[in-house]
Amino acid sequence: MKRSPHLRLRRPLAAAAAAAGLLGLLTAAPDPAGPSSAVPVAAAENTATVFYYTKTRDWSAYNLHYAPDGGSWTAVPGVRMEAACTDWVKKTVSLGSSSGLAATFNNGSGVWDNNSGKNYALGTGTITVKDGVVAHSDPCAGTGTDPGPSPGTGNNATVYYSTTTVGWSTTNLHYRPTGGSWTTVPGVGMEAACTGWVKRSVDLGAATEMQAAFNNGNGVWDNNNGSDYLIPAGVTTVKDRKVTKDAADPCVAEPPDTEAPTVPTAVKADADGVSVVLTWEPSSDNRGVTKYQVTRTGGSKGTMVSDVGSTVFSDAGLEEKTAYSYTVRAVDAAGNTSAPSTAAKATTGTRPTAPATGKPLGTDPRKDPIYFVLTARFNDGDASNNRGGNQDVKSGNAANNDPMFRGDFKGLVNKLDYVKGLGFSAIWITPVVLNRSDYDYHGYHGYDFYKVDPRLESAGASYQDLINAAHAKGMKIYQDVVYNHSSRWGAKGLYTPTVYGVRDSQWSWYYDEKKEGFAYDGLTIDPKTGKSYYNGDLWSTEEPAGNTCVDWGKPTQYTSPEGYRIYNCQWPNPTSGMFPKAYYHNCWLGNWEGEDSRSCWLHDDLADFNTESAPVQNYLIGAYNKYIDMGVDGFRIDTAVHIPRTTWNRRFLPAIQERVTQQFGAEAAKNFFVFGEVGAFVNDKWNRGSVNHSAQFFTWKERKEYDADDTKAALEMYDHEEKLGTGAQPTSTNSFLDGNAYHTPDHSKFSGMNVIDMRMHMNFGDANNAYNNGKDSDDSYNDATYNVVYVDSHDYGPNKSGERYAGGTDAWAENMALMWTFRGIPTLYYGSEVEFQAGKKIDCGPSCPLATTGRAYYGDRLAGTVEASDFGKVSSATGEVANTLSKPLVKHVQRLNDIRRAVPALQMGQYSTEGITGGMAYKRRYTDAASGVDSFALVTVTGAATYTGVPNGTYKDAVTGDTQVVANGRLTVAAPGKGNMRVYVLDLGGRNAAPGKVGAAGPYLK
């Protein structure tokens, strides 16, 4: 993932929220005697009066076993509780200076209510515990300062409060009727009404309204930013600080929907060869449009009706020189259908000459070590598509003649033999879709997800050509894809915001004059300005009709990096009103390990898709179906953690499987490799204790049913799994041997997404540390043998370093020896085979030249010719690429690939450390009865090892060719030295014979 630093992240509430430790909605406690103007001062000694509901227990005695926060527990069974009133017992306890207590309840004879294994977390004051629900009120109070609901002839107020935003497990209403007294803090407990809502009814007497605030009973308040809510008599809802008077009961089922959506407008059909792309403006509906029906007439095949989830429809494979007509209807969830739109017509041309559609290689992805390239920075095959963008001069790239878009598909095709000669059989490339941002060479700011960025393509070197050329050499293409966000200019074909940046004397350089008919494609040069980064459609001198952006055109307190005054609505952002909620989330991320990290913007250059919205889902599924159809072999998923697992499991992952199965069959779908970036940049097994933000979590299916609505389901799943915690997550033995035996893995609960091994990545400052951290996590993945393992990448080095790995050649050799023999799929970032840019800052955005960073151009190291006769075998090389191929780490990685390719256990095997002494030492086995493969290997990296209880027989080392005969289940191996290793393979004869020494001794493997 790339986050452009060009513009500062603007979150007006962030500073205050950080200071309070809360979201902007929540504030300090109000004064119980009047308006919310002060925080109540705690008494010298806190107490808690705990009421416990007895009716559903019917115990003969009730005991409170507790510990003040930070203090010691009472002796079991705790303190006896006393009768309070019908169905209630109580106990008042002293907490000293503690602000709460942990508690459980029991009958004194071994029967406990410990809240399903989790202690109750209680605050101070008056607390009730009823059937697992904690509230703050006195259930036995009849009169006094707590005017709770009671029969009367006065006015009544029923208030519903939405808990979705605050996420409280208990909610209290603190109030006073006009002219009356405030309730005692924290007020009266509110009761659950339905999912996401609590309610309370209050007798107002003669008053017609009340002042109110809400809190969680533990000092966290929503007092409407210091101005108490005014709640009138009748039914009122309070949601996100909005008070709705005379509201409908939010928990009552909605009446049947009989209203049809509006008719789609601005329907436009554009022909390109024998394809037609149809676009239209979104329809509106009282409850939301779920799909569109496109009807095509014309041609010899008659009428065709297609269901479409987005506002773009691509109709391919039509007849040549034929007139077609299209109409569009909008459909809502209830099946109400609009009238057809005005017809749009297009006439096809001749069928263009195009490369044949590819087909994925469809083999087990664990066989294929991965080479990762930033396509635009790898190798330049066609200078005519190079582009510098509007930061070319400022960044210093122009002075180096190093435009950000420099490498391309032609350059990669030309050097496929270099990658194959290193021994890699899979290439992970950065996103290919048309990008739009101020610094978008990396590909993570998608604008048109249905179009390949023309800055990467050339005549005879299209994306399809690259896929086909790689496949012809037996190499796979893994495409980096982004489901979480688009560029800040939106997503063409789904929604693109109109951006009203004031074009004054300061900004005339940025906002071009409008040019009718000129459309941004990243490549085409505007003849008037000489620019390819056209922004003429992004400004207005006057506020346009229908503007939704707040405070349009008014100057703000902010300036750009150049020192220019920034105006409101200068750029798209989530809180301006520019982005419809149907397509984009409308909030800034506040907590990287909070629920909002899955439903808010990460950065102002990354407009966060509402991935729980059907139109967005269908737009993205349709886009990535295009690349599946081209024959790519897998997807690397960017920012996967920022989309709820329910959405992956319900929508995107099944859609991938369905499309690959439909196009290429079940076996190809099984081996279509999907691996996600779940950015857990910490060293612990579970990311700061949050399961929802941990890599292994995404390898599993859901364990229960959630609401049919994807937004509600995401929240339900998040809360459910966080409440279960790390100890209740599923475990697996899929990566572990059973003694010395391989066992058939159980993938029945596999989600369809594998992951990058973030824990090993973070700990690769030292190979032994990475190894021990990796194996500590392996029981929590569905199958860790599919983990993608790397030392550094285009984002980070180990320990969240911002520099490319600089541990030294010996350390690199040791890291590689581990990665190529331990479970998982070894992955190398381009140039690491020569320690390219070691220690350089990986990315500094437009503030410095790319040549000084970890994303520098690599093509200079590849000049000349290279031919590979097989994986890891270079038959000829000339020029600078020959020098590159002579480097010691190149020789090391070539031989590692040779050895791994010769020993199936190193590719797909399960592993164990049982009966083994040594540092990085393990045994691996892979058995496939259907193909007759059985491979068993004993591995030690760097240090000595002793193996006991292993099968007897003849073992041959793949590094030295040494032969050892084991007769007593014991093999001892001397330390091979740093960066070196030993791989003793059991000789099982026939096709499972040990390969003996593989390749020639090199600088490390010897």
Automatic annotation (TrEMBL):
Compositionally skewed regions (Low complexity) per UniProt: 337-360
Fibronectin type-III domain mapped to chain residues: 260-353
Region span, Disordered: 335-366
Cofactor(s), names only, from the UniProt record: Ca(2+)
SUPFAM superfamilies: (Trans)glycosidases, Fibronectin type III
Gene Ontology MF terms: hydrolase activity
Pfam families: Alpha-amylase, CBM_25, fn3
Keywords from the UniProt entry: Carbohydrate metabolism, Glycosidase, Hydrolase, Metal-binding, Polysaccharide degradation, Signal
Signal peptide as annotated in the record: 1-33
Keyword Signal included in the entry's annotation: yes
Domain of life where this protein originates: Bacteria
InterPro entries in the cross-refs: CBM25, FN3_dom, FN3_sf, GH, GH13_cat_dom, Ig-like_fold
Cited CDD domains: AmyAc_bac_CMD_like_2, FN3
PANTHER family referenced in this protein's UniProt entry, alphabetically: ALPHA-AMYLASE 1 (PTHR10357:SF215), ALPHA-AMYLASE FAMILY MEMBER (PTHR10357)
Identification of the protein by name: Alpha-amylase family glycosyl hydrolase
Taxonomic classification: Bacteria, Bacillati, Actinomycetota, Actinomycetes, Kitasatosporales
